[in-house]
C-alpha cells in the first residue's frame, strides 16, 4: 500500500485534505477475514454492504465461492481468495488444475472484482497438522503463481501462503534470537525466496490471545498494546507488547533467510469475546482499541515502520460451525455476532471515539419460536443422548465455563441445546422432537443474560455442504460430560 505523505502543502485547505488522506490511509490498511463456517450465513450482499458501511476496504476469504466473490464486484474492495488445505494436492500434482482454478476463480471475474492475492492453503504448516501438507503446499504455490503469470495477471495478483506464527520461534523472548522452525527451515527458506522473487508478501497470523491462553504465567499486559507491561529488551530495542515482538521475530527470520526486505502482511489478528479466561468483550475491546491506536500512530514495530499497514482482523462474524478443538473461544472471534449485530464500540481510525460499528441491514429472521425441554416429560434417561446429539451438531459453547449461559440450571441447559439445534436446522419441526422430550414455544426462552437466538433466514445454498462436514465429535463428548 502506498502511504500518502504530507509534504509542501502550504495552504490550510490542502493541508486538511492531506490530513484526511493520512487518516484514511490508516483505515485503508484494515481488512477483515470473512469466514462462512456458520449454519445460516448472511446473504453476501448484506455482508458486503456492512463492509462498505464501516469503510472496510479489504477482505480475506477462505475459499473462492463465486457467490461471495461476485458480491464484491464493483465495490473497490480488495479481495484475497483462497485455496483450502485439502485441495493443495490437486494443484501440486497437476499444473492444469492450477490453470483451471485461476481461470474459473480469478480471471473470469476480471475487471469486476479487485482480487489482489491468492492464499494458497490456510496455516498448512501448523504443528497440529503433523506435516500433512508439507509436500504439497510449495509446489501448489509455484503452480498457482505460474498460472497467474501465464494468464497475464501475475503483476497485480500474487500467490502467497497464510502461515501461523508457529512457523518461526525464538528460544528466548528476544526477537533477534528467532528463526524459522527447525523442521521447516529449508522449506521456509525456499518459500520466502520464491515470494521475494515474485514480489509477494509473507502473510502471517499472530495471536496474542493464544499466547496468553496457552501459558498461565504469561504477563497479561504484554498481550495488549497499552504499554502497561515492563519492556523486554533486545539489544537496544524495547518491546512492550507480544505482537511487536512476535512480528519482529519474523523480521529476524527473514533476515537470516536472506530476504530482509520481504513485505509482510498480517493475515489474521483479533481477540474472541467468549470462551472463558480472557475471551470476553472487555478484553477484546481493550485489545482492538490499543491495536487501532498503534496502527494510527504509524510507528510500526521497533524493526518495521510499516508493520501495521496491511492487516486483516479476525474476524468479521462469529462462526458457529468452527471446530472447538482449540477451545470454546473458536466460535466467538467475530467483531459482529452471527446476525451482523455489532458487539462493542470500536474505532477503525484509531482516534478512540466510542462508536458502535454499523451492523448488518435488512437481516431477516426466522419466526420467533423456540424449541425447549418439555418438563412434563420426566423420563430423564433419554436426555443425555439427545443433548449430546444436539451439541454435536450445533453450537453449545455459550453453556461453557465463563460464557454467557453458564449459569443456567439443568432444565435451561437442556433447552439451550435443543433450541440451538432446532434453529440451526432452520426450525424444521422434526428437529424439535428429541424422542418426545422437546416442545415448541412462542414464549421467548432467553434467560437473564443468556440469549436463546432465533436464526437468520438464509438463502441456505451452503446447507448441504455444511451438513456433510465433520463437526468435532470429540467436542460433543466433552460437552456431554460437562453438561450432565
Ligand atoms: C473455484 O473455487 C471454488 C470455490 O472455492 C471451487 O469449488 C472450485 O473447484 C474452483 N474451480 C476450479 C476449476 O478449481
Ligand atoms: C497428529 O499426531 C498426534 C500425535 O501422534 C495425534 O494425536 C493427532 O491426531 C494427529 N493429528 C492429525 C491431524 O493427524
Ligand atoms: C428474547 O429475549 C432476549 C432477552 O431479553 C432479547 O434480547 C431477544 O431479542 C428476544 N428475542 C426475540 C425474538 O424477541
Ligand atoms: C424411559 O425411556 C426408556 C428408553 O426409551 C424406556 O426404556 C423406559 O421404559 C422409559 N421409562 C419410563 C418411566 O417411561
Ligand atoms: C449446565 O451446563 C454447564 C456447562 O456444561 C455446567 O457448568 C452446569 O453445571 C450445568 N448446570 C447444571 C445444573 O447441570
Bound molecules: 2-acetamido-2-deoxy-beta-D-glucopyranose
Question: Structurally, how many domains make up the residues?
Answer: 2
The fraction of residues assigned to DSSP E strands is: 5-15%
Number of helices: 14
**CATH-level-2 architecture of the largest domain:** Alpha-Beta Barrel
Structural class, please?
Answer: alpha/beta
Query: Under CATH, the topology of the largest domain is which?
Result: TIM Barrel
Q: How are the strands of the biggest sheet laid out side by side?
A: 5-4-3-2-1-13-12-9-6
Helix-strand sequence = HEHEHEHHEHEEEEHEHEEHEHEEHHEHH
Quick one: how many beta strands? 15
Assign a percent range to the helix content. Answer: 25-40%
Give the overall form: globular
Question: Key features?
Answer:
binds 2-acetamido-2-deoxy-beta-D-glucopyranose, 12% strand, 484 residues, disordered N terminus, 15 strands, single chain, 9-stranded parallel β-sheet, globular, 14 helices, alpha/beta, two-stranded antiparallel sheet, TIM Barrel, 2 domains, disordered C terminus
